[in-house]
Amino acid sequence: MVVKNILITAETGMHSRPATILVTEADKFKSNITLSFHDKEIDFKSIIGVLSLGIYMGEVITLTFEGEDEVQASIKIVSLIEELYVGKEVKND
User: Fold this and answer.
1) Where are the domains of the chain?
2) Residue 24 CB coordination number (10 Å)
3) Is residue 31 a contact partner of residue 73, using CB atoms and an 8 Å limit?
4) Spatial contact of 2 and 71, defined as CB atoms under 8 Å apart
5) For residue 56, what are the contacts with CB-CB under 8 A and spacing of at least 6?
6) Helix spans in the chain (H)
7) Of these residues, 9, 15, 43, 49, which one is catalytic?
């Protein structure tokens, strides 16, 4: 299992355009990817689930990757989040 905490940095939060790109990319992996936010947990491969959370700038989400390609999935998804200027990984020291 790989767990990543992401600070949402986009002024518009997690809106439909980047969410669609991220969900499409997540769907390419075999691993289960879960997004946790404010006591809610959804399948990150569901665009309706992601958009229904109403994630705004300054909030932290947690992505959990579980499966045979979890490491590759976590690297690609976190990298894509940063490339889209939606958020950045929060390092836990």
Assistant:
1) 2-90
2) 12
3) yes
4) yes
5) 8, 13, 14
6) 16-26, 47-52, 70-83
7) 15
Give yes or no: 38 in active site: no
The pLDDT assigned to 93 comes to 54
8 Å CB contact between 64 and 3:
yes
DSSP 3-state of 45:
coil
**18: amino acid identity, one letter:** P
Beta strands in 29-74 (DSSP E): 32-37, 40-43, 60-66
- Judged against a pLDDT cut of 70, whether residue 5 lies above it is answered with yes
Contacts of residue 6, Cβ cutoff 8 Å, sequence gap at least 6: 60, 61, 62, 63, 78, 81, 87, 88, 89, 90
* Fold of domain 2-90: Histidine-containing Protein; Chain: A; (3.30.1340)
Residues 44-67 have pLDDT tens digits of 999 999 999 999 999 999 999 999
